[in-house]
Amino acid sequence: MGSLRVRALDPERELDAFLALRNATRMGNLDRERWLETEARAPASSLRRNLVGGLDGRMVAVASVADDEFVTNCVSAFVATGPGHRRRGHGRAMLAAVEEVVAERRPAEVRTATRDDDGESRAWAERRGFAVFDHTFRSRLDLDAFDPAPHRGAVERAEASGLRFHRFGAADDPELLFDLFVRLFRDVPDQTEPPDRSYFQREVADLEGMISVLAYDGDTPVGLATLLPLQAGEYLNALTGVLPEYRGRGLARALKVVSGEAVRETGRRYVVTNNNARNAPMLAVNDALGFVRQVGLLHLRRRTPTV
Fold first, then answer.
1. pLDDT digits over 250-283, tens only?
2. Considering just the CA atoms, what is the radius of gyration of the chain in Å?
3. How many angstroms separate the CA atoms of 34 and 61, rounded?
4. Roughly what angle, to the nearest 10 degrees, separates helices 11-23 and 32-41?
5. Which of 117, 159, 167, 257 counts the most CB atoms within 10 A of its CB?
C-alpha cells in the first residue's frame, strides 16, 4: 500500500466523490449545485482551498480551508477521513496540508467544528491544540406537518397592537434591510461578527429566492426574519430577531409563522435553522413551533496556530 497523496480538488472530475466523503461526517449534506453556486459567488480575493487525499487511486480523505466571513483575521478548516480509512495517519497528513495553507494566510485564529456526539473527532482536534468555545444546534421544521393555526394568535396580537408585517421586495430600501440585519445580528450569542456590506449583498440581498419579512411599528422596522434557499426543498432561517424594546410580546414567533407561510408558498417543504445553545428564548420558540433538533455542533478554535 502506498502513501497518501494530498493535492487540490479537481471539481470537474472529483466533486461528487469529494462531497460524498464530506457528507459522510453527518454534519449536514451539501449537494453539487449548492457547492458550485457558493464557490462561484466567493470573492476572487478570498482564501478557498479544497484538498483531497488519494491512496492507490481512491479518494480516502478531504479537507477545506477558507476565510471565515464572520470573524476578522480567522480561517475555517475542515478535515474528514473516510470511515474505512481512519487511524492510519491520513487525517494527520491532511491536517499537515491544511497547515501549509494556513501558514500562507497567517490568521490569528483557526476554527473548526464537530458533531457533539462525536467524541473521537473532538479528542482528535483537542490533541492538536483546538478547544471548544461554543455549541449550536441545527433544527428543522416540516411545513407539510406544520399547522400554523395554533400560532396565528401571535400574529393577530402583534397586528392588534399596531404592528404590521411586510415582505421585503425589489422596491424596498436594501440599506434599511442591511442596517436592521446587522443590528439584530449583534444580539445573537454566537461568537461571530455581523457580515459586511459586500457579503450581505452577495449572500443575502441578491440571492434569488431570498425571503425577508419585517415587522413595522409605524415607519420603524422593529423585527426581521430572513430566510435563504438551500437545497433539496429547504430554506435556511438565517436570522430572526426583534429589537430589545419589542421583546417578550411573541413577535419572534409571529415572524417565524409569517415567514414560514412565505416559504410554503414557494413549494419547499422544510425550514432549517441554527441556534446557539445559550439562546434559550429562541430555542423555546422553535420547540413550540415544532422544529426538531437534528444535530448539535461543537465549535472549536486554536488562537495561535502552530505552523
1. 999 999 999 999 999 999 999 999 999 999 999 9
2. 21
3. 21
4. 110
5. 257
Q: What single letter denotes the amino acid at residue 302?
A: R
Close Cβ partners of 146 (under 8 Å, ≥ 6 residues apart): 260, 289, 290
CATH number of 139-297: 3.40.630.30
**pLDDT at position 307, please?**
41
Specify the domain boundaries for CATH 3.40.630.30 within the chain: 5-107, 139-297
Of residues 71, 194, 183, 91, the one with CA closest to residue 133? 71
Q: Is the pLDDT assigned to residue 305 strictly greater than 50?
A: no
Q: Residue 296 phi/psi, 5° resolution?
A: -105, 140
142 φ, ψ to 5°? Answer: -90, 110
Q: Which of 62, 67, 160, 145 is nearest to 110 (CA)?
A: 67
Q: What is the mean pLDDT of the chain?
A: 93
Identify the CATH number of the domain defined by range 5-107. 3.40.630.30
pLDDT at 289: 96
The alpha carbon of 54 is separated from its chain's Cα centroid by a whole number of angstroms, namely 29
